[in-house]
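Task card 7
Instruction: Convert sequence to structure tokens.
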Amino acid sequence: MPNAANPREAYMNGLRRKMGTVTRMLLVNKWERFMDNSVKYTNLISCNEYASIIP
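Output:
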């Protein structure tokens, strides 16, 4: 146990690691959904119209 002297520090580090994993999972999920929608949009409309949608 490297952090036995400071259990609160160990707890916070574990919590931070957990939160990072959750955040990464949510971001990946959002990004994948965004990419799916982009592909659908690209299939629906022509490249010129698609380019004009992006600000």
